[in-house]
Amino acid sequence: MKFKIDPKHDGMLVRDYLYHVRAFSRRMVKVIKYDQGILINGSPVTVRAKVRAGDELLVHFPAEERGPHLASVHKPISVLYEDDEVIILNKPPFLATIPSVHHLDDTLGNRLMAYYDQHNIPFTLHVVTRLDADTSGVVLVAKNRFVHSLLARKQEEGEIHQTYQAVVEGHLEENEGTIHAPIDRAPGSIIERCVDPRGKAAVTHYVVVKETRETSLVHIRLETGRTHQIRVHFNYIGHSLRGDSLYGGIIKGINRQALHCSSIRFPHPISGHEIYVEAPLPEDMENLIT
What we know:
four-stranded antiparallel beta sheet, alpha+beta
């Protein structure tokens, strides 16, 4: 990871620059220091060295160990965007994002590890935005734990913006609207959620993009990120997602919930430049509205 030293930081110690300007944790600096991974203009230095305006500070992160369930699976992935710090993928439906008790052998994470091996990326999986197995679309991944920590902070501060598209049953009364309804666990279930006044606040904004005889394609922006929020909210207003059997959707023309993460926008954790990436609507959802 490279940093160009700004004149206003001239004379700072490397460790202070990393702590206060680049938001490295003390633990992270300690790991890098003992791995001798800090260079200024190509020459190895200690954290007590001073940076000068115009210097190129290069930080090498040590290789990371991968968990026992992150074996490489050599199957295709769709890369929408990639640089030295992040990679953005287009996840197909019916593929879990990360390994779990129910998905151990083949996940997006396992496939990404094979991609890392092919491109000599010595890190493990750091997913920033997860999707349910049956939901398709944009997934943001940090390439190392430092970048992951920066993006997790941006996520908490509401700086990572995702949009979704869904095909819902019927025609909504309003072509544009907002659903305000708190969400909690459904009684007796560890998976299902429901609208409940005792739950956490949840806000969903939507715009109708297209209507067919039986369904509507809606563009969705979340103000909060509750589990199953989109599915629960549209079921609550009487317009369940097509194919979503858990929340009242009709299984017709598609055998999953018709939900797709269509875009993501966020400030790059190192450069600060805005990154905007889109993923096209998948074929099974496209077929529902043509």
